[in-house]
Amino acid sequence: MVLVGQKARRSRYLKDAANTREGSGMSGIDDWFDEKTLLDMAPPDVFLRGASAAEHGSVQILERDEEHLRSRVEDTEVLTTEFWLSSGELKWSCTCGAAETHPCEHLMASALATWPGEAPRAE
Ligand SMILES: [Zn+2]
Fold first, then answer.
1. Over the stretch 66-86, which tens digit does the pLDDT of each residue have?
2. What is the model's pTM?
3. Rg (CA), the chain
4. How many angstroms separate the alpha carbon of residue 49 from the centre of ligand 1?
5. CB within 5 A of ion ligand 1: which residues?
6. C-alpha–C-alpha distance, residues 82 and 61, integer Å
7. What backbone torsions phi and psi does residue 51 show, to the nearest 5 degrees?
8. How far apart are the CA of 69 and the centre of ligand 1, in A?
């Protein structure tokens, strides 16, 4: 009688549950307004012009909730900007009409104006 021993090595079952993002899909619009995300959306010079406008107090926030931000921005003219969430994506519009491919400086200024404390300094 020949006994053939066989011992299969059981692959370890790696628990990955700890890495699941908490609250994904439930994030508010503020989560889009950190510096990194804003710089991903717009060119740095647009970001800086927005920062400068926010710093000079040109932004008045009219409406703000979890999914919506509407502001009035004073530039050479008065503009109305809007950000809103749609199916988990950030959408925007500005009455300057230059905010098609990326948010314009007015939208940047509005986003930065939601930051607690001071807006970042423009060079
Ligand atoms: Zn604009």
1. 999 999 999 889 999 999 999
2. 0.73
3. 23
4. 11
5. 94, 96, 104, 106
6. 10
7. -60, -40
8. 14
